[in-house]
């Protein structure tokens, strides 16, 4: 039961202005800090200052703290009243709401702007998806960021009820007959812009590791089954994964072969009776590997590469890898020492088809990464704009400094260019013949975002700063951005790939 709040005049608050009897006003709300002063992280001297004790300390508070501090139960209970005749004007996180901060949302969600790419159904879908992620996923993400555990099964189950696990794999036959978000979008109308929306709303949880832990392994591990698996294999595995009863991951990378797929050393040989595979090797950096039930595994076989689905069983052991992600996406080592078993080849035929199964998966993975990273940049930019408008230095907001505005402008230009490029490519994916989006995506994934992400991370950290004050999201972004520079292929390797792809398309008669 909430306590009754008194209406107080500023004169009444001013009477409580000394050590042991200390009140302050923050955004028209009155807080009794008398007993809290000894617990204040900055020391009691900050609170008994003549410009704070008994005064309106709104500006001083927001120069040091995030608004969410006031919403935490241990601090919210310190409120004893409100200022008579005044109203609070500062709002916290709005469930399902849109940001009013300039560039805080992509243009299709910004009042007064228009986009040729998004339909009314996309907008309705975005609103529902954001509300779901704000209400169900965001609280779990914040809790898991603190305790380092994997996402809760309850979240997996609620996503399964809406068929979000299926939708995260994009449009396709796998959606046929499913009710998508309680019928909000028809399976045959679901396109890559719907998937883009899901990925970008997930990133708003603000936890890089949690986002990967929320079945990032499925996004890259299940497509080979969908695209190349036998009907029998798909009938068994796909429903289990979509319902979050079983988990799957992609096991390609190895310690000796990161971007060099052809350099993998894991081997697979047939048993004497020819019925089973015997697999030996180690995989590394496998997203969701530690809690996966299935491993979509690249293996070296006689005559080439083969992709084999390995269930968790005797001979398959996993060990988590500690990383800077903190919350637990369970990147892992996977040790494969298998006797003849129930492993299934994903596609039968010549051993050389394995490399095409592997490579066919990369472009969608890289596109998903661009969707995520572009939204993360927008979130960080919003944090920075809020901070430079409320933090004062030399008596003026940081935004009054030309060098700060110049940095913000550079980030705004880069981010909006990436969003525009991303949406253009997504449109091509929806409309071009099958082979062309892949060629275009290879260029975009290779050239578009890697160095820009690092520059944004560095500048934002300069603007906002420490993780224990106003900058936890910025610090988290700066700490984890290196993962996006290697996932799907190392930065330099992909940069070279983009140029090589462009050179292959050069017309032979082109001359200066």
UniProtKB/TrEMBL annotation:
CC per GO annotation: cytoplasm
Domain Cytochrome b5 heme-binding: 5-84
InterPro entries to which the protein is assigned, alphabetical: Acyl-CoA_dehydrogenase, Acyl-CoA_DH_CS, Acyl-CoA_Oxase/DH_mid-dom, Acyl-CoA_Oxase/DH_mid-dom_sf, AcylCo_DH-like_C, AcylCo_DH/oxidase_C, AcylCoA_DH/ox_N, AcylCoA_DH/ox_N_sf
GO biological process: fatty acid beta-oxidation using acyl-CoA dehydrogenase
Keyword Flavoprotein (UniProt): yes
Gene3D superfamilies in UniProt: Acyl-CoA dehydrogenase/oxidase, N-terminal domain (1.10.540.10), Butyryl-CoA Dehydrogenase, subunit A, domain 2 (2.40.110.10), Butyryl-CoA Dehydrogenase, subunit A, domain 3 (1.20.140.10), Cytochrome b5-like heme/steroid binding domain (3.10.120.10)
Cofactor needs: FAD
GO MF term (any one): acyl-CoA dehydrogenase activity
Keywords recorded for this protein, A-Z: FAD, Flavoprotein, Oxidoreductase
Source organism superkingdom: Eukaryota
Family, similarity comment: Belongs to the acyl-CoA dehydrogenase family.
Protein name: Peroxisomal acyl-CoA-dehydrogenase
């Amino acid at each position: 039961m909430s306590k009754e709040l008194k209406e107080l005049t500023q004169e009444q608050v001013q009477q409580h202005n000394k050590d042991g009897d200390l009140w302050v006003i923050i955004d028209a709300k009155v807080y009794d800090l008398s007993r809290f002063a000894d617990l204040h992280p900055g020391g009691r001297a900050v609170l008994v200052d003549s410009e704070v004790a008994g005064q309106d300390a709104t500006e001083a508070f927001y120069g040091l703290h995030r608004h969410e501090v006031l919403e935490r139960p241990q601090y919210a209970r310190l409120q004893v009243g409100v200022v008579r005749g005044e109203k609070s004007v500062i709002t916290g996180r709005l469930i399902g709401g849109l940001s009013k901060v300039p560039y805080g949302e992509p243009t299709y969600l910004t009042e007064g702007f228009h986009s040729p790419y998004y339909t009314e159904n996309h907008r309705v879908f975005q609103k529902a998806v954001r509300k779901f992620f704000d209400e169900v996923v965001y609280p779990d993400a914040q809790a898991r960021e603190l305790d380092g555990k994997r996402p809760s099964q309850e979240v997996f189950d609620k996503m399964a009820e809406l068929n979000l696990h299926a939708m995260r794999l994009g449009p396709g036959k796998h959606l046929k007959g499913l009710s998508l978000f309680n019928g909000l979008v028809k399976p045959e109308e679901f396109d890559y812009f719907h998937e883009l929306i899901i990925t970008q709303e997930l990133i708003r949880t603000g936890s890089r590791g949690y986002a990967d832990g929320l079945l990032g392994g499925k996004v890259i591990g299940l497509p080979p089954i969908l695209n190349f698996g036998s009907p029998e294999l798909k009938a068994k595995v796909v429903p289990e994964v979509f319902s979050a009863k079983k988990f799957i991951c992609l096991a390609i990378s190895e310690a000796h072969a990161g971007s060099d797929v052809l350099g993998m050393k894991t081997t697979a040989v047939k048993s004497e009776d020819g019925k089973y595979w015997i697999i030996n090797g180690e995989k590394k950096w496998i997203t969701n590997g530690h809690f996966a039930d299935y491993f979509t595994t690249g293996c070296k076989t006689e005559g080439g590469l083969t992709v084999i689905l390995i269930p968790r069983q005797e001979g398959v052991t996993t060990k988590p890898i500690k990383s800077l992600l903190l919350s637990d996406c369970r990147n892992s080592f996977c040790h494969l020492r298998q006797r003849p078993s129930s492993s299934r080849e994903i596609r039968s035929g010549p051993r050389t088809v394995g490399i095409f199964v592997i490579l066919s998966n990369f472009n969608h993975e890289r596109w998903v990464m661009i969707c995520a990273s572009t939204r993360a940049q927008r979130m960080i930019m919003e944090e920075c704009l809020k901070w430079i408008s409320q933090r004062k230095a030399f008596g003026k907001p940081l935004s009054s400094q030309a060098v700060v505005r110049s940095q913000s402008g550079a980030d705004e230009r880069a981010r909006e260019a990436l969003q525009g490029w991303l949406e253009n490519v997504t449109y091509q994916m929806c409309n071009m013949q099958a082979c062309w989006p892949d060629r275009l995506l290879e260029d975009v994934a290779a050239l578009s975002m890697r160095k820009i992400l690092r520059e944004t991370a560095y500048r934002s950290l300069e603007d906002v700063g420490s993780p224990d004050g106003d900058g936890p999201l910025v610090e988290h972004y700066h700490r984890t951005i290196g993962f996006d520079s290697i996932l799907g292929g190392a930065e330099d390797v992909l940069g070279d790939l983009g140029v090589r792809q462009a050179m292959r398309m050069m017309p032979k008669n082109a001359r200066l």
